[in-house]
Hints:
- By secondary structure, the chain is mainly beta.
- Mean pLDDT is 81; it is low at 235-250.
Amino acid sequence: MEKMEHFSHIHPLLLKQEKINNNNRVLCSGCEDPISGPVFSCDQCNYNLHKTCAEMPRHVKHPFHPEHPLVLLSTSPYEGRYVCDSCRGIFQNFVYHCYICSYDLDVSCASQCNPDDGHKHEFMSVTNPQSFVCYACGLQGNEGLACLCTICQIWVHSSCAELPLAVKIKSHDHPLKLTYALHHVYGFWGNITCGVCNGAMSAAFAGYFCSTCRFPVHLKCLQQDEWEAVTEDEKSSTDYETGESLDVDFAFSFFGHEHLLKLTDEESDLRYSGKLCDGCIQPIMPPLLSCEEENCGFILHQSCVGLPRTKLHPFHAHPLTLLPKAPNYDGIYRCDGCKRLSNGFVYRCDMCQFDLDVCCGSLQERIEHESHLHPLLLKKTTVGRQCKGCQRWSKYVFVCDVCEDFAIDCGCATLPLKAWHMYDKHPLSLNYFAEEGLREYECGICNEKTCPKQWFYYCDDCDSGAHPYCVEGKSRRVKFGGSFQYDVHSHPLALVEETDQNTKCEACGECCNGWTLECDQCKSYFHREGQCFWKEFKKSAKYLELSGVMRHRYAANVLASTPNVTTK
């Protein structure tokens, strides 16, 4: 029996021929229509999806909204139901949503049009009574004469409608094929580098590409190069229709990074063992995106490349914007969800100075957790709830609707089930079921007692325990290295976790303990925590140019981003 892990549900779904309920008709949890035919069903709860709904793509480019890609969400992105911008129907569940424009399509309307990749239908010249966005080039079209495909319901400029399906150009050896969906060819929605002009071209719109070596070309660059249309005989004599392609390097630009990125998909490449993604600050292995510059070291998960640029989150009333670096002095910030420090990407509300790291920003709104019998829901509560894991109070929690007294905060909800630490050679297991009256363990890291009410890590072999915050350390979501230009020194400084005991700070002359800023050129060192760092920060140009409330807020954010501010 076919089994599927679907993004919309916490349990595996099994394919069945038809879901039958003698008492009530069964509705699809995606499109909300009655179930008939093959269905993916959950045996543990009443969750069912048409096979067609379960197999719908997560991202689409749609002719009803060609400006931006639409992402498939499992529930309405708003409080309550949403209104489909095509049929004006009101729906609750699956929706294709544009985070930029808040444009919404229900799955039925989204399935009506599926333009052919190279578009081989005939266009009809008609007078368009209003302006439009050309589905091919992405530029604005004015009122007047335009071309419409009545099958796919797409509008294009008259000049774009005349584009040949295949061409040969002087600057490339192989035939090039027209595609209206470059993102299908290259596997992402970012910008690609045109092989003719070296400029950026969007993968969300049409272009020419080589199916042999994936050489991409702008539509506009076709006019700047000598070209000729490929005849039907030439098409059949090449492998260009097969869709097969060689694995070759191609590069594209990514917001927030000054260099081009390339795909690295050799899973046996050991260069990335122990490395961290610059977006989510989690371990990374190929396939991944890496910087073309040899000494840059910038790497990203493919999933982090596809993160939505704006999103609504249960923790905050305003939309959050994805930034490649927090504006807090040197990019280090404290996540308002889990309270951990990070220097990766941040989902931020500038108005409220509210920050979430990628992990908290991407949390599912409904999870199953080993610490509790019932599913947990992600919420911002009106009053603080005491976390069952650490006993701290927080409004940003997972709660149980069945058991009113159960809540865990984001930090405890994302603790790994297994962890390793240098103090113990065995793996440590997270123990949830601590109760009063049970034995208190001495933490093998800080040598203080563990609290019987709090979760702790336990080693079965050594019969020893450890606090979760001691096992994690203060740097779990911080990537060391890189460089940043601080006011305290003329050269860029790299963040390092620790240095030799005899290393002296150039600013205060004391030994550098903990986080340290290192100059690779002149081997100078400066504190990145403690009173010394705080004094030097208050001399910085950015701090001095601010005044009043703005200076106070800026300083408070920087103070919160220092590791000596405890969150135990």
